[in-house]
Structure formats: structure tokens, C-alpha cells
Amino acid sequence: MERVAVDLAVASTMELVNAASAIAAELARREPPESAAACLELTEALSTANDMNEAALTGFVSVVDAGREVQRWGFPSTQSWLRNRLGMRDARAKERLVLARQRHRLTEVTGRWSAGDLPLGYAATIAGAVARLDDEDCAAAEKILLGMVDQDFSAGKVASFGRRIRDVIAERDGTEPAPDGAQRGYDRSWIDSTRSLDGGRYIKGWLNAEDAAIWDGTLGPLAKPAGSDDRRDLSERTAAALSSVLSGGHKATKVTVICDLDTLTGGTAPGRLTDGTPIPAEQARRIALAAGVSPLLLGRGHVPLYLGYRERFATPGQRRVLEALYPTCAVVGCEVPGTLSEVDHVNGWALGNSPTDIDQLTLTCGFHNRYKAAHPGRITVRRDTEGRYSYRLQQPGTDVGRETGTPIAVGRPPPWNQAA
Predict the structure, then answer these.
(1) Largest Cα–Cα distance of the chain, in whole Å?
(2) Distance CA 81, CA 366 (A)
(3) CA–CA separation, 365 vs 77, rounded Å?
(4) Could you read off the pLDDT of 310-334 as tens digits, one per residue?
(5) Which of 22, 87, 140, 237 is such that its CA lies 20 to 30 A from the CA of 288?
(6) Residue 418 in this model has a pLDDT that exceeds 50
(7) How much is the pTM?
(8) How far apart are CA 196 and CA 277, in angstroms?
(9) Reduced to 3 states, what is the DSSP secondary structure of residue 248?
(10) CDD domains from the xrefs (predicted)?
(11) CB neighbour list of residue 360: distance below 8 Å, 6 or more residues apart
């Protein structure tokens, strides 16, 4: 059994973290006691300790975020680092980032949380409630919401009040509350989007007067009933109008349905979208009819897929192929959709190593495309049995090549291309 001896008064932060890790590892290995009463007491004590660990962890994240350290490691954002490096779900990563960015404004919350007097759930709820408030309102909101905590309100009830915190502040200060439907005091428009388990998306937000005018002027005419037999309510018509605008209208819609010819002509085999989402055959045919059918052919005489070294940019046909092959950026863990990514020459077109041929191209988001060009030695390139490329980021200071771990020599063809 490993022994842990730490002088708390003089130990460094790293020594404390190592000691906490060793204790956590030993706890995880042990079987829980048989006594339910003992387990209840231990759970409450350990939960408080975990809350204090989370407070320390949030402090580390705040420094990482402020220093933009994750960009040096090849991550486009702190939230991306939390998701892909630490394995957090998107909602958890977002919650931790909000806590990190608000802790310096929530001095009382941070103090009580760090001392074990405030559970993580309450701290996260208050941080989320004040994220869009100015400093003066933030201080007022902190006092109001902590007062509710002290009155034993549940975290859910505090969150409910947090969503209408400006009205609560107005009531407390005796100022006139903002009327329903009018501006609620936010400086900028905002929209929150949460993905549901079935692939759908919940949306909530607020638009200022200027953006609301654009919304009404653009969607209002499109959201009118299509005829006397249009049974959709206003909410459904507005959603349909928004989808039409986002896709550029039926003529400009960029929807690629990947399916068998049998499905298109009445078969039952399901199709899929470019992000891998499976769709029933009937829905695939409906999308094809609404957006127009664009054949995706990998054959001679149909789409010019091989352009060699004379052409720098991929053709629209090549891009359609790549969007079908890569639902997201080729960097492992990056979730930027392929439709919003850039075409990347795997071995670098500027060095003359990679022609504009379909089997030498992939899709990367703008951030990782520039990162790969600036740091070719920090990218490991792999190709699967189906011909798709994937990129893995390496730690700063580690230069590796493709699959073999061979150093990349910038300015001359990489080792895997010399034998070609």
C-alpha cells in the first residue's frame, strides 16, 4: 500500500495534487463498507471533499483559459480541450468553463465553495445565472441567490429564479420591471442550444430590438399559412421558415443524402446524412425531392476527381465526395462539421507532396488546417481500410510522422511519401 505523507503548510500545489490522486486511487480500489448508515455518512463527507476538489480544479481551468494555453496544444477552445482531453460531456464542459470564467466575480460563492460550505450544484447554478450580467447586477444576483441557498431552496428552484434574475433584482430594488415581451436588460442577443437524445435540438434565447426586427422582417412573411389546408400552428411554421432561411431556400439547399439507388426508387433500406445520422427510407426520398438529387459518383467521366499538381483548389464535385466521407473535421475529437471545414492536402500541397487528388485530400476545420501547416510535426496521420484519413494531435515538443512515428522534415517530402 502506498504511503502518503504531506506537510500541508509547505507542500507545493503539485505535491498536494499528487497526494489527492493517490488517496482517490486507494479509495476507488476499496470495497464499500457493508453498513448502509456508514456509507451514507461517507458519501456525504466525500461529496463535500469532491466539491472542494472541483473548486480547485476550476481555478486551474480559469488560468488555462485566460492564458490560451490549449491553443498551443492544438485545441481551438478550452471547452474543446475539456471535452476531448478530459472526456467530459459537452454540457459538463460548458458548466465547468462558465464556473472558471465567473469565479473572479463571485467572490462569496468561490469562498464558500472552496471551504466546503457550498455544493458544486449551487455554485454552477449561480455562475450560469450571472454569466450575462454586468458587474453591478452580478453582485446583486449573487446575494439574492445565496440568500435562497441559505433558506434551503433546492438547486432547481435557485436555477428557476436565476433564469429571471433581472426581474428579481428589479423587484428587490423597487425599480420598474421590464414588461413581458420587451427588452429584459441584456446588452446583446443570445441563443442557447441543447441537443436531445434523438438528434433533435432545444433552442431558447433572446433578441434585442434590432435583431428582433430582422427576425420579424425575414421570417414573418415565410411563416404565414401556406393555404387554407395548412394545419401547422405559428410555432411550427416559424421553425419551417427558419430552416428554409438557414439552408438558403429550396434551390440553394446543400443536403446530401447517401443512400442506395434502390432506396431512392422505393426500397426500404435506410439512408444517412453526411454527419452519419441514419434516416428512414421514406424521409430520405422526401429530402431528395425537396433539395434536388445530386449524384455522388466515384467513377471516370462523371466528376473530375483527379486534378494532379496543376490545380490548387478542389472542385465542387470533390468537396461533395469529401463531405460524404468526413462528417466532421479529420482531427480526432474535433466536432466541427465537415460541411463547415476546409479541404486539406494531407501531405501539404505547398511542398509539392500532395496533388489535388481525392485520395490525397481530407477536411479539417479552419483552426486545425492552420495548426497543421504551422506545426506539421505535431500531427500524426493515419488512414483506415476504407481510405479515410484521421489526424491525432501530439503534445508540444513531440514531433512525429505518419503512423511510424518518424520525424517530419519540413521543406522536403516526408518519409512515407519518398518511396512513391
Answers:
(1) 79
(2) 17
(3) 13
(4) 445 667 777 888 888 888 899 988 8
(5) 237
(6) no
(7) 0.59
(8) 13
(9) coil
(10) HNHc
(11) 345, 346, 347, 354
